[in-house]
Design goal:
309 residues, 6-stranded parallel β-sheet, RNA-binding
RNA sequence: GGACGGGUGGCCGAGUGGCUAAUGGCAGCAGACUGUAAAUCUGCCGCCCCUUGCGGGCUACGGAGGUUCGAAUCCUCCCCCGUCCA
């Protein structure tokens, strides 16, 4: 059975994924499929380093600007949408080029999630209330229902404790047991995973610069505009580095220098986490350097050619 | 010249006789991650040693002495920094 081909450009933020993906799509008549959990949102442009429409050289970009900032979105949701996009792109014999740094979304797309229930806000509210009453009680409850998950998840990691418990309560089975049933992996595609790995010093330097530029280039105004549209400061995407500090700046909790400092720091930490994540990703083909560097780009292009050829 | 305040591990900064290799933050390193993941969480972080568990050794709180069973913590002198008075 013949499979379609997909190229994925992965790596830490600021590594030049968007640029490389764009070049790839252009060269191999492809279309870019976003795999970034924040570029999914409308109006979040500057802080997410979203490629402006004018810079896309006419190449179609998918899964960007498809959600309002107050809409709840999940990895499962992403996987469903992305798979549909992949099928559509492939159907018109175009090459899907996935680009993004959200490793979890990418894994949900390619490896799949376990067949479990969706999130249940009501249940979560109740669990949160319970936790507030007695700290640690939710983890203890998980221990009774699913000792294996409880042992694996740190008691302090509340979000993960809640999800495991949610699965247990909704399915009346242990989450760890359900995990063993496997994941619904992507079928019908060969995926070439290209990882961008610039040196850390250079990456951090670029990130620091970029972050500062965001603040001088309208990030705060962008945030003000989003709020003016009626979206609450409590919206999920505002919890991300850069945006969080912009909100705090607007609230007078930070001055500009502090906001930049914290945004830079958190961005660096994020990049580090991404590297940790992608290091564990199977079958990655790593390229040193930035995706917008001609040498790196050429090397990646050559690899892609062999993959497609 | 005089009066105060201060010199602590890469940085900031607690600590004011033993429980202190020394709270905490920053920086750094490593890791986890199965439906809000740019989120959330964990570990290491003076040096060396059996990679053996709360193990052992060495060097550490400006410098040099001293008091003490024991000092980053007390005393003396010296050096440096800051503020003020001259």
């Amino acid at each position: 059975m013949d499979k379609h081909q997909v190229i994925a450009i992965l790596g830490p933020t600021g590594a030049g994924k968007s640029e490389l993906a764009l070049s790839m799509a252009q060269k191999f008549t492809g279309e870019v499929v976003n795999c970034d959990s924040l570029q999914i949102y409308r109006y979040f442009d500057i802080g997410t380093a979203k490629l402006p429409q004018e810079a896309r050289r006419g190449i179609p970009h998918h899964l960007i600007d498809i959600l309002d900032p107050d809409q709840v979105f999940t990895a499962g949701e992403y996987a469903r949408l992305a798979r549909r996009v992949l099928d559509e792109v492939a159907a018109r014999t175009s090459l899907p080029v996935i680009a993004g740094g959200t490793g979890f979304y990418f894994r949900a797309l390619v490896d799949g999630l376990f067949p479990g229930p969706s999130r249940d806000q009501g249940l979560r509210d109740r669990l949160s209330a319970r936790e507030r009453r007695r700290s640690g009680s939710v983890h203890r409850l998980l221990g009774r229902l699913d000792a294996e998950s409880a042992a694996r998840i740190h008691p302090h990691d509340f979000p993960k404790v809640v999800r495991a418990l949610e699965v247990c309560l909704l399915t009346r089975r242990a989450a760890s047991e359900l995990y063993r049933q496997g994941r619904d992996a992507l079928r019908g595609y060969h995926v070439l995973k290209i990882g961008l790995a610039p040196t850390r010093d250079q990456l951090y330097q670029r990130l620091d610069q970029r972050t500062e530029q965001m603040f001088h280039g309208g990030l705060v105004e962008e945030v003000r505009g989003i709020l003016a549209r009626g979206f609450p400061a409590s919206a999920k995407p505002f919890e991300s580095h850069g945006y969080r500090q912009a909100i705090q700046l607007l609230n007078g909790e930070l001055n500009l220098n502090e906001a930049i400092f914290y945004a830079q720091r958190n961005t660096r930490r994020y990049a580090k986490r991404q590297m940790t994540w992608f290091r564990q990703e199977q079958q990655m083909e790593w390229f040193s350097g930035f995706g917008d560097d001609p040498v790196t780009q050429q090397a990646a292009m050559d690899r892609a050619s062999r993959f497609l050829g």
